[in-house]
Each structure stands twice: as C-alpha cells, then as structure tokens.
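Hi P.,

Sorry for the delay on this. The queue was packed all week, but I finally got your sequence through. Input first:
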Amino acid sequence: MSRLFGSVRARATLAATLVVAVALVAAGTAVLLSLRSNLLGEAGTSAERSAREVAAQLAAGTRYDDLSLDVDDRPVQVTDEDGVLVAASEDLERISGTGVDDVSPSPAAGRGDREDEDDEELEPGEIGGRTTVTDGSATIDGETEDYRFAAVTVETDDRGTLTVHAGSPLSAEHGAVRTALTVMLIGFPCLAAVVAAVTWLVTRRALRPVEGIRREMAAITASADLARRVPVPATHDEVARLALTTNETLSALQTSVERQRRFVADASHELRSPIASLRTQLEVGAAHPELLDVDGAVADTVRLQRLAADLLLLARLDAGERPADARVDLAALAREEAGGRSGVTVRIAADVTVAGSRGQLGRVLGNLLDNAQRHARSATEVSVRREGGTAVLAVADDGEGVPAADRDRIFERFVRLDAARSRDDGGAGLGLAIARDVAARHDGTLTVREAPQGGALFELRLPAV
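Then the structure:
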C-alpha cells in the first residue's frame, strides 16, 4: 500500500479525486439547500394563497357552514380572536404547527376582547397584509403528511377578527430533495471514479517517458556504459527538458571519466620512465659502483619529484580546492620570477593587485616562463598592465609560436605538440594544463595568441582588486 501511494501517479490521482469529491459535495449541498428553500417558498406561497381565498369568503360575510374549506384536500382552520376554532376542513383528523390542535369547531365560539396590542388594525371586510408561516403536520382521511401553514387575519363586521390557517403539503419538497439526494449519492461516486480513472490514465501517459528515462538510467548504472543516452520524447515539455538535461549530465560525466582514465594512464606512463631509469642506475651502481651515474640519478629523482608535485596539484585542483584569499602584487611577482633568468625582460605598465594564492600564481608564471624560454629564439618578455577592472599578466617569446589549430589543445594534460617538446627538454606536458586550471580557480582565464615578435603570447587575465 505504501509503495502504491508512493508513486507520483497514485498521489496525483488521489489528489484530483479528493478535489473533485470535495467540490461535488460542496456543490451538491448548495443545490440541495437551494432546492429545498425554493420548494419551501413555493409551499408557503401556495398555503398563503389558500388562506387568502378563505379569508376573502369570510370578508364577504360567508357563514362558517358555507365556507369552501376542502380545496385540494388541504387542512384549513379558522379561529376567532380568542383562538377558538370556529371552522375547519371536514376530513381533518389531527393537526399540529398552527397553535390550535382542535379539529372540530366549538359550538360556543364567540367574540372576546383583544389583548394583543401589536395586532394589525384592520377595517371591517379587510384582509391583513402580514402572513405568518409555520411548519407542522396534519392527518386527513387517515393520511398524515408534513405541511407548511400560512396564517392570515381578516376583519369581519359581525364576527370580529378571524385568523385563517391553511396548509400546503411538503410531500413534493421531500420527494424532490430525496430524488436529488439519490441522484447525487449515485452520480457523485461514479463521477469521482471517472475522474480517478481519467487522471490515472492521463498521468500514466504523461509519466511514461519518465519511466523510460528511469529504466535507461538503471541500465546505464548496471552496465557502467556512459556512452548510452536516455530517450528524449518528441514533446517540448518539462519531461523532454529533463531528458535533455540528463543526457547533458551523462555527456559531462562520460567526458570527466574518460579524462580521468586518460590522466591516470598518462601519469602512469610518465612515472614509469624516471622510475625505470632511476632503478637501472641504482642497480648498475650496486653491481659496479665505479659506473654509478650520480648526476643522472639525481636528475631523474628531481624530475620524478616535480612530476609528483604536478600530479598532486592537479589532484587538488580537480577536487575543487579554492585558493587562499590573499593580496598578490603581480608586478612584484613578475620581477621575482623573472629574476635570474637570462634573456627575460620585465615591462610594468601599472602596479596591479589581485586576490588569490601567491604560490599558485607564481607557479603559473614560472610554467609560462619555462615554456617561453624553451621555445624562444633569443628573448622573452613579461608584462603587467591593467585593463579596467582586469589585471593582465602576459608572457611573450620570439619563437615559432603556436599554430591556431593547437591553441586550445596545448592546455590539455600530457600534450606535447612536437618532438622538440620531449620528456627531457619539455617535461611531461603538465605545465600549461596546471596554469589554466589555476587561472580558472582564480576566476580568471589563460589564452594564447600570436605575439608581436611572431612567437607565442600567453595572457593571464584576473579580476583586479
């Protein structure tokens, strides 16, 4: 049961059915009350009409015995000022609700003094304009029914003020209300069932693509095949956008996993060479101490250390490590990194301060200078300037430059464009990748284009403080 109502389709069906049920109950109640009020009003009007017909006869001086009181078998009572019954319907056996329970006229009916000062003052032969309506019951010819009674007063010349009570049956009202209630009790559940069925089918159809997405995602999880994609429905609704977003997420995940696998494979390959070389030298030195190449072993150890440091930094950057929020003077950093390097000139157009990690930004500049000196013919230039709210650190060389087709590729990890960038001379191909990742972590960019001298111009752009 909990699993059934845990589905979106079941909850939507239940909610729609409850809303419709509440609306039907409210509407049905209003209809019944309105119907009952209208029928009661019609019964009261009919009773008043009968009472006024009898009152008109009394106003005309008709004797009690000559009154027409048995119209449509409705109960009628006529009482005098003292409340004594002076005339009644012939077949009336019992009555209640009029204030006078007698059904047989009193032979000693007479006039009495008026005690109610609020009674309507009437002229002889005049019928009162006010009507009092009450509910009660009466038995005529052995049949008992509910009635609505109307009381009308009439002033006569010789008999004083008389009150006529006439009733109108409520059987029509009761029958109509019962019929309407029966229809509602049968129709409303059927209508609610139809709404539930339609909602169930509509939501099933609407959620069918979602179920397809779920099944495909389950299959992708089970097979670990990130090349698969979920089906995209032909509609242009939220489900279609969900499928598109899911496929975009799968594409990003596939790219990330492939990049990680490639990174691990390349890192293993790059580590294998210095480790193997170092092991060989140590084994030769152990067997023949006089042949031990200490300088080569130290160089391999340093290279291995640098590669391990690069891999560790890339791992931290991939993990989302944010740089320290320190103030870094780019001009001072440029002078510091360029100091001691031959053929490197520094041009400072403005002192610019940025927020970030001095160590990581120094690493970026160092990697750019290493790359520039490796490919420069004779000169390398470092410049610092400010463009609006952006700090620009540029490194240019007069080498062969970077072909336009490779200007994005050189920032990929373990990429070396040609044989000149060998492992011995050009490192493992991680310097520019680290530089761009550090720039991105500092909310900046690192791009390359052609330098005025014809070589490569790397520009690091960071938000200035």
